[in-house]
Design a protein that fits this description.
A hairpin with a 2-residue loop joins strand 9 and strand 10. The strands form three sheets. Strands 3, 4, 5, 6, 7 and 8 form a six-stranded antiparallel beta sheet that branches. The chain has a two-stranded antiparallel ribbon with strand order 1-2. The relative contact order is 0.13. The termini are far apart. It is of the alpha+beta class. It has seven helices and ten strands. It is globular.
């Protein structure tokens, strides 16, 4: 028995995880080592989980590459900068009204006009819509909160004429940005319809609320 207890005490002191077997003939004890809780197979499984939710570096790098594509996430454009370009740098450019419509599966709502875009030389109208789609959608939800909810998916479009007679909207896909020239964001501009509740895109002339664009200023003077 002393031999049994000596072997048992020795195992406890070493901290090893072992199973003890008592010899049927009397006192000899043998042991076989069991798998440790820190086995390589468990560690390997934990590392492999990096690509599924949470934490894997490779997943993050992949996301960054997608963001660089024109058809990926919208560029982080500033509303004020694009508005200034619309009103000042692109004064002589043609105005194209823009609108959004809510998309729910195969169902599409009516077009809702929320502003206008311009581009240098009138060459990048579709790019102006697609690249500024974040600003356009954000303003649509601000301007028309009952029609465009915060989590609604929307489609963007523009109208080729300023006439209010029989407006025909042309949908724009974000993929048009894929081949857009570098720095084109500085050649386009967006002006949202004035929203007195938030103060966005509001400009006053002689106490009247007008758009900041050159056309609106001329209208205000003549009125």
């Amino acid at each position: 028995m002393k031999l049994i207890f000596a072997a048992f005490a020795s195992a406890l002191c070493t901290g090893s995880s072992s199973a003890f077997v008592v010899n049927q003939h009397g006192g000899a004890v043998s042991h076989r080592t069991m798998a440790s809780s820190h086995s390589p197979s468990i560690s390997s499984s934990a590392l492999n989980m990096g690509g599924f939710g949470g934490g894997g570096g490779m997943g993050k790098k992949g996301g960054k590459k997608d963001d660089k594509k024109g058809g990926g996430a919208p560029l982080k454009l500033k509303a004020k900068s694009q508005w200034d370009r619309y009103c000042d740098k692109l004064k002589g450019a043609k105005i194209f009204p823009v609108a959004v419509r809510v998309v729910n599966g195969d169902e599409k709502g009516e077009w809702l006009e929320v502003g206008r875009v311009k581009s240098e030389g009138d060459e990048f109208t579709e790019v102006a819509v697609a690249m500024q789609r974040g600003l356009i959608a954000e303003h649509a939800k601000r301007l028309l909160p009952l029609q465009v909810k915060p989590k609604d998916m929307v489609e963007w479009g523009y109208r080729a004429t300023n006439s209010d007679d029989e407006p025909s909207w042309s949908p724009v896909d974000k993929s048009v940005c894929d081949d857009a020239p570098k720095g084109v964001e500085k050649k386009i501009g967006f002006e949202g319809s004035p929203d007195p509740n938030s103060g966005f895109y509001c400009h006053y002339s002689s106490g009247r609320l007008v758009d900041k664009s050159d056309t609106a200023k001329q209208m205000a003077k003549s009125g």
